[in-house]
Design goal:
By secondary structure, the protein is mainly alpha-helical. The protein has ten helices and no strands.
Length: 246
């Protein structure tokens, strides 16, 4: 982490924004926080800090209404999330900074374009797609701090109610982020004291964001929020690609 102290409140502000999105949609925090944070701190540092922040947020939201979750969907995805996590963290610790930045930018842009053009629920898919969703989510969770898009794309094309979707994806992310935290701990990414200092401040900001999300949920439609986030991601992703290519 850079020595500049202004980075700490900036990370806290990014955590607040990410948790606001996560609290209203059930996913998407990493899509907001990691691309923004990597403009100011190295990618491994951002991933380490927000792994802890995201895990705290996921526990708070995911344990609210676990009975609404479709357990069969989670059971199908979680083993493949583990496999993807192992592969993702192996790539992360060996990927040069410029290439990592470029890969993150491409991933963010592709998801932003999908979010702007897609119509969730327009078609249903087989439950067997859960295996690919879990595997790809495990990889992107460790590489980019964002496994949620893979789970969301799959679950949005399954016959789930709004309550089932939210509860299922939040519990899946609890397992996914928990695996990410364990992988980062094993590889030593969480052993730096500055990671925990930044995370302590960011977690407090995230809890405030989650509290505000319940109020905003009643006043902003989920679809409108996702469109706004997609536009933010598109601009952010293009910026990351330019930096990685340069």
């Amino acid at each position: 982490m850079p020595d500049d102290l202004w980075v700490l409140p900036l990370i806290a502000a990014i955590a607040f924004l990410g948790s606001l999105v996560y609290g209203m949609t059930g996913f998407g925090a990493g899509l907001v926080t990691i691309p923004l944070a990597t403009h100011f701190v190295p990618l491994p540092f951002a991933l380490s800090v927000f792994a802890l922040v995201d895990f705290a947020s996921a526990l708070r939201i995911g344990l609210q209404k676990p009975k609404d979750a479709v357990k069969a969907e989670i059971i199908r995805m979680v083993p493949f999330v583990l496999v993807g996590t192992v592969i993702g963290v192996t790539v992360l610790v060996n990927l040069p900074q410029a290439e990592a930045m470029l890969a993150l930018g491409l991933f963010v842009v592709l998801y932003a374009v999908y979010a702007l053009l897609s119509r969730p629920g327009a078609t249903m898919v087989s439950r067997h797609w859960a295996y690919l969703a879990g595997f790809s989510g495990g990889i992107t969770s460790t590489l980019f701090g964002a496994g949620g898009p893979s789970y969301a794309i799959y679950l949005s094309h399954r016959p789930l109610s709004k309550q089932q979707f939210r509860a299922t994806i939040t519990l899946t992310t609890v397992f996914s982020i928990g695996m990410r935290v364990a992988a980062f701990a094993i590889t030593g990414l969480l052993l730096k004291s500055e990671v925990w200092v930044a995370a302590a401040l960011a977690v407090r900001a995230a809890m405030v964001g989650l509290g505000l999300a319940s109020w905003a949920f009643k006043r902003v439609t989920r679809e409108s929020l996702l469109r706004a986030v997609a536009l933010l991601l598109l601009a952010n992703g293009i910026s990351l690609i330019a930096r990685g290519a340069g």
